[in-house]
Design brief:
- The protein is mainly alpha-helical.
- The protein has helices at 18-31, 53-69, 87-96, 101-105, 108-117, 123-138, 151-168, 217-225, 243-256, 260-267, 272-298, 301-330, and strands at residues 5-10, 36-41, 77-81, 143-145, 180-182.
- β4 (143-145), α7 (151-168) and β5 form a beta-alpha-beta unit.
- α3 crosses α6 (123-138) and α3 (87-96) packs parallel to α12.
- The longest helix has 30 residues, at 301-330.
- The radius of gyration is 21 Å and the shape is globular.
- The structure holds adenosine monophosphate and tryptophan.
Length: 336
């Protein structure tokens, strides 16, 4: 038995923030040696809302460099760009034709993004989860590590698998594999610094709401100094009345590597004036090695390109196998 396969991706839309890191990438890095990993830059998903062609390629490279800077190791992980492997689009079309429209209309993320955009919502935004299902199923992934916000899309992927296998699998031999989501309890939902009830998001208009992985020490200090708190002294986890307090303690716990019990004891009598500089220092220290490595990688574009070329080749070969299997199951024939 080989290792189980992990697949995941992040969209190259704007800066990567602590939510993306703690909810997704850090978990990929920590578990990578146990799995065979396929990690990609979701640049086809990035155009499901209006995008700027001038920044798409640069954002894609930045994100690939950040994957490496965060610690993805090429001996365990294949890194590639979604649009480089055309099978993603092809499988999406095939799956589109077995996915009921109302499943997509029910997706929370679609509804939220459609309302936000208002006019001229593209068909791609509705179809986003089918493309995501194609990403996962092409690699016959066992596990998909994501943040909490992607859970519904994983459930949809599983529904598509069941429907596809029911319609096209012969004699109970399934064509597509059922993937499991891998959602960590801690870090799965990092909240905004300006509103502890909203998740930290790339699309929040306020820069003060998030800490980006490439923020300078000064920016980090400033954002933490100005983040929302409450007038209560003594800091506690899990108080529904104090969402900001819970979020900031959680960030401190995850970035310092301390246990929850240690943080409870350390912070129970603190006021914000004492805690904020501590959190700022901890964040700066945690991000420094990532930022240094990122700078090193970015000076050698040739290296980054070679990583993505290798990734395209490895990923493309596997994707093509699944695509052929799916097409055969659906009744297409293709002479060699
Ligand atoms: P996106 O920025 O939407 O491409 O998300 C990339 C990954 O980061 C996905 O696995 C998301 O679930 C995860 N993610 C995004 N925002 C957060 C957040 N605020 N807390 C935890 N995980 C997040
Ligand atoms: N939709 C995911 C997000 O925004 C990114 C993504 C695209 C993804 N395809 C995927 C994540 C496949 C996991 C598996 O976070």
């Amino acid at each position: 038995m080989g290792r189980q396969r992990v697949l995941s991706g992040v969209q190259p839309t704007g800066n990567l923030h602590l939510g993306n890191y703690l909810g997704a990438i850090r978990n990929w890095v920590e578990a990578q040696s146990e799995y065979e990993n396929y990690l990609f830059i979701a640049d086809l998903h990035a155009i499901t809302v209006p995008h700027d062609p001038k920044t798409l390629a640069a954002n894609t490279y930045t994100l690939a460099a950040l994957y490496l800077a965060c610690g993805l190791d090429l001996s365990h992980s294949t890194i590639f760009v979604q649009s480089h492997v055309s099978a993603h689009c092809e499988l999406t079309w095939l799956l589109n034709c077995v996915t009921p429209l109302n499943w997509l209309e029910d997706m929370i993320q679609f509804k939220e993004k459609a309302v936000k955009q208002g006019e001229n919502v593209g068909v791609g935004l509705l179809d986003y989860p089918v493309l995501m299902a194609a990403d996962i199923l092409l690699y016959q992934a066992d596990k998909v590590p994501v943040g909490e916000d992607q859970k519904q899309h994983l459930e949809l992927t599983r529904d598509i698998v069941n429907r596809f296998n029911h319609l096209f699998a012969k004699k109970g031999k399934s064509v597509l594999k059922l993937p499991d989501p891998l959602i960590r309890k801690q870090g799965a939902r990092v909240m905004s610094l300006t509103d502890g009830t909203k998740k930290m998001s790339k699309s929040d208009p306020s820069e003060l709401s998030r800490i980006n992985l490439l923020d300078s020490a000064d920016e980090i200090s400033k954002k933490i100094k100005r983040c929302k708190t409450d007038p209560i002294r003594g800091l506690t986890f899990d108080d529904a009345e104090r969402p900001e307090c819970h979020n900031l303690l959680m960030l401190y716990m995850l970035l310092s590597g301390k246990s929850k019990e240690e943080v409870v004891i350390e912070c129970q009598d603190m006021g914000w004036g004492q805690f904020k500089p501590l959190l700022a220092e901890t964040t700066i220290t945690a991000l420094k090695p990532i930022q240094e490595k990122y700078q090193q990688i970015m000076v050698d574009k040739g290296y980054l390109e070679s990583v993505l070329r290798d990734g395209r080749e490895k990923a493309g070969a596997i994707a093509q196998q699944t695509l052929s299997k799916v097409k055969a199951a659906m009744g297409y024939s293709m002479p060699l």
